Amino acid sequence: MVGGGLLARELYRLPEAAPDAILAQSSTSRPLAQQPGPGTVELTPDAAAHPQNGTVRALLQTYFDSINNRDYELWKTAVTRERVQAKPKSTWLNDYRTTRDGSILVYRIDPISDEELRALVGFTSTQDIKDAPAELPEPCVHWRLVLPLTLESGAWKVDTVTGSTTPELSRC
């Protein structure tokens, strides 16, 4: 019985996080005036245990920084060619004109293949109501979604979100 307990402890122990991983602090709720929270991408211990945690965190930091800074050229470095083609600069600038993202937390990183990962990400977005998602026209929205990550020309990129994953949205 003791042997079984020791074996179970070893099997369910999370690997230690990489030294450069930014681990999430406590996820306390913020007052609406303090939303969306900091723009730093953080990782849960589960996400930090993934061998690609540093790469994923850096990629998503670039992705969210580009949105928060209205930097289309930076955004293009973080996404696949397909996403760039689907969202020309004028459309992108219009879509994100009032968006501010923060409280960004990567919950999990799951391998799909050697060239594909999926990152379960939560974040808070503030925007003018007219720029809010049609399904939740609010000035502050909490998002949870799976972002597909693809290896393209030797670099990880955020790929197009397919219809097979539905984001979870809630009011702040």
UniProtKB/TrEMBL annotation:
Source taxon at top rank = Bacteria
**For the region Disordered, what residue ranges are annotated?**
27-47
Protein name (database record): Lipoprotein
Q: What is the lineage of its organism?
A: Bacteria, Bacillati, Actinomycetota, Actinomycetes, Pseudonocardiales
